[in-house]
Q: What sequence folds into this?
């Protein structure tokens, strides 16, 4: 059964409890086939059977459940806290608490004071109390909310209504704060969408008309004037300009754009005017996809978060049980005073509640993922952040990763024996080589075809083209089989000797050039040397990786040893593995993982897909233009800058440090407070305040990851 997918952003959805409630509310609604809730993004993705329901009906249902639909994404960060019901009930609770206290001091009868305190308790506990009970009854789980509710109610029953009310008020305000900060943190990424303009100047019937960006269709031509932002992704039809694409790639150095180049939504045009053909709709542009992927990543918990959640699920019931035993055992067995021990039990339950512990990981992670994305590094979930922090080896593909992947022919040499034949010229060699290579997508093939065309050579007709993966290609030229490929293909597979040009070959390879041989089954015709330029900052990027604590930077390539070594020396690579087939690359990655630990593999996905899949973390570079890389990589560097990987490693290490500090701090606070509670040194107000303070400190500390 297939249905229509609808993506909705809703208000008031800010934690797992809300998510569970929303899911319960919608599941079973007629026509709703599937519900996926993204609490951190405040987003719901629904699959609807349109025959039985409509998006409007579902919106109404959501409104009824207390989750009204927001009109636009990206508004998350701008939602006013004064409209949030959790904030409002909490503030009411505070006001009533204050009133109760004032009234008590003014000497009003206790009934009035009690009334105000009880109202404060009810208002403060309205949301978390309901959550506590729903969790208990529907999911059979004891949550922190229940610990707090029980403590507040028991304190009140013991004749301390002010303490009960204060607990409810402080806990509710910290909950509201937590929800609000999380919303704001994740809003930071959705706000990127605001960078794309609201209207586009589209050419319709020969005139330029302003239309809302949502109405731009694929294939439309739109105009981007100097200084304007690009409304959606497209290919430049005419004009030249330098464009700042920082929202997408995180790099504010302007990039030159001209006919045939790609521009991304949200980029800021420089001095020139560009005419662009839209390649995506507004909803599907790269910026929107980045936001979507980050929102998904923010839901994907890392190992440590899952561990803490599991721990929390077992720990909270134990706290409640221990509190119960604490209240009854000493009085029953050791003649303790009932009142004293009940009070201590209440203090203990609050002291031991693991609020700060539970929040420390997710808040930090949400901030880290958002910050990384704004700097052009898309990390697909908590697990990868954790693994990035402990990367030991970085493996790099050569073509397209260390080099630009747009090689050029530098030298052509003929074998004298072949050149002695009638009509055997460089032009004929190039014509035949280009005839074969025009069927191949390999960067080397493109270089050869381009060179032949520039030399004004007629490209020959070749039949029966066949690609020999990782070695070259073959086809029939003037009736005989012809081969183009690596020297190894000729020497080992075909048994053709290359002696006459052996020295020349070695010299070219030592210069870092890739040498391709052309020849038939009996004799070689000539050599074509091709050089790909190294990326300008490759050397700096590799130094940065070492500085970030990477033990080994390794090159994995299908090219020959000499060429690979020459390039590796130029950029400071530690180890080279050459002449690798795609499956050999994967095997190398496995071996590196076994001997050193976590391996990050950077590649372009052309002949290294198996290796990318095998690595702990598969990293794609220049992912902004290529959909597949963006979707399949574990970490996507949006721009073409390898230095961003070192940035990602450092960011992950900082995330790791902040999480560790947070966990240590919250554990320490719990230990001190529990000790104080058991010994009777701390009263309820003391632990409540300390508890909430520690939570604020942890949130504030996690938010440090927003700046990096
Ligand atoms: N279409 C082709 N034309 C000429 N030579 C080819 C072709 N395809 C492969 N080869 C030869 O086979 C070798 C290995 O190719 P492969 O695609 O595995 O790796 P690569 O492009 O050299 O480098 P990397 O593995 O770093 O991407 C090339 O260096 C080249 O010598
Ligand atoms: Zn708390």
A:
């Amino acid at each position: 059964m297939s249905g229509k997918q609808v993506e909705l952003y809703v208000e008031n959805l800010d934690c797992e409890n809300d998510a569970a409630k929303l899911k319960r509310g919608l599941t079973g609604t007629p026509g709703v086939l599937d519900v996926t809730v993204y609490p951190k993004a405040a987003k719901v993705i629904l699959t609807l059977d349109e025959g039985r329901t409509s998006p409007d009906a579902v919106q109404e249902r959501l409104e009824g459940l207390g989750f009204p639909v927001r009109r636009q994404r990206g508004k998350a960060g701008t939602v006013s806290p004064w409209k949030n019901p959790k904030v409002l009930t909490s503030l009411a609770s505070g006001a009533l608490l204050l009133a109760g206290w004032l009234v008590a001091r003014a000497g009003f009868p206790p009934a009035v004071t009690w009334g105000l305190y009880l109202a404060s308790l009810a208002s403060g506990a309205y949301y978390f109390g309901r959550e506590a009970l729903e969790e208990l009854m529907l999911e059979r789980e004891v949550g922190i909310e229940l610990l707090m509710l029980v403590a507040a109610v028991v304190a009140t029953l013991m004749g301390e209504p002010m303490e009960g009310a204060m607990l409810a008020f402080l806990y509710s305000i910290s909950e509201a704060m937590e929800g609000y900060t999380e919303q704001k943190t994740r809003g930071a990424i959705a706000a990127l969408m605001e960078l794309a303009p609201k209207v586009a100047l589209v050419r319709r019937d020969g005139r330029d008309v302003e239309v809302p960006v949502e109405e731009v269709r694929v294939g439309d031509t739109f105009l981007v004037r100097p200084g304007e932002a690009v409304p959606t992704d497209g290919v430049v039809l005419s004009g030249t300009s330098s464009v700042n694409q920082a929202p997408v790639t995180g790099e504010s150095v302007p990039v030159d754009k001209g006919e045939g180049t790609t521009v991304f939504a949200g980029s800021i045009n420089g001095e020139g005017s560009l005419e662009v053909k839209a390649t995506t709709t507004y909803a599907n542009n790269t910026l929107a996809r980045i936001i979507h992927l980050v929102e998904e990543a923010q839901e994907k918990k890392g190992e440590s978060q899952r561990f803490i959640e599991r721990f929390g699920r077992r720990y909270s019931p134990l706290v409640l049980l221990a509190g119960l035993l604490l209240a009854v055992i000493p009085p029953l067995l050791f003649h303790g005073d009932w009142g004293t021990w009940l009070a201590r039990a209440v203090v203990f339950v609050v002291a031991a509640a693991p609020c700060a512990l539970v929040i420390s990981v997710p808040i930090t992670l949400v901030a880290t993922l958002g910050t990384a994305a704004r700097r052009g590094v898309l990390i697909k979930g908590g697990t990868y952040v954790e693994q990035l922090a402990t990367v030991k080896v970085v493996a790099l593909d050569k073509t397209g990763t260390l080099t630009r992947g747009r090689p050029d022919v530098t030298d052509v040499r003929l074998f004298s024996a072949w050149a002695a034949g009638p009509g055997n010229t460089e032009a004929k060699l190039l014509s035949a080589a280009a005839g074969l290579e025009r069927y191949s997508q390999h960067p080397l093939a493109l270089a050869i075809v381009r060179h032949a065309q520039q030399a004004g050579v007629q490209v020959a007709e070749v039949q029966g083209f066949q690609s020999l993966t990782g070695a070259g290609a073959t086809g029939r030229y003037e009736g005989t089989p012809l081969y183009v490929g690596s020297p190894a293909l000729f020497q080992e597979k075909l048994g053709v000797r290359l002696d006459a040009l052996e020295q020349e070959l070695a010299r070219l390879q030592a210069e870092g050039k890739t040498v391709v041989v052309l020849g038939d089954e009996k004799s070689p015709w000539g050599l074509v040397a091709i050089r790909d330029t190294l990326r300008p900052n490759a050397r700096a990027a590799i130094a940065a990786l070492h500085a970030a604590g990477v033990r080994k930077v390794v090159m994995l390539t299908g090219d020959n040893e000499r060429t690979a070594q020459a390039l590796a020396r130029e950029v400071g690579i530690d180890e080279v593995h050459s002449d690798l087939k795609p499956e050999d690359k994967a095997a190398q990655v496995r071996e590196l993982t076994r001997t050193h630990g976590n391996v990050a593999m950077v590649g372009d996905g052309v002949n290294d897909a198996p290796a990318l899949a095998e690595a702990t973390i598969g990293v794609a570079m220049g992912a902004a233009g290529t959909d597949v890389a963006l979707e399949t990589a574990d970490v996507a560097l949006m721009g073409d800058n390898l230095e961003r990987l070192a940035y990602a490693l450092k960011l992950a290490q900082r995330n790791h440090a902040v999480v560790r500090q947070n966990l240590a701090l919250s554990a320490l606070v719990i230990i001190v407070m529990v000790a104080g509670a058991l010994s009777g040194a701390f009263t309820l107000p003391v632990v409540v305040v300390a508890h909430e303070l520690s939570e604020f400190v942890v949130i504030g500390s996690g938010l440090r990851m927003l700046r990096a």
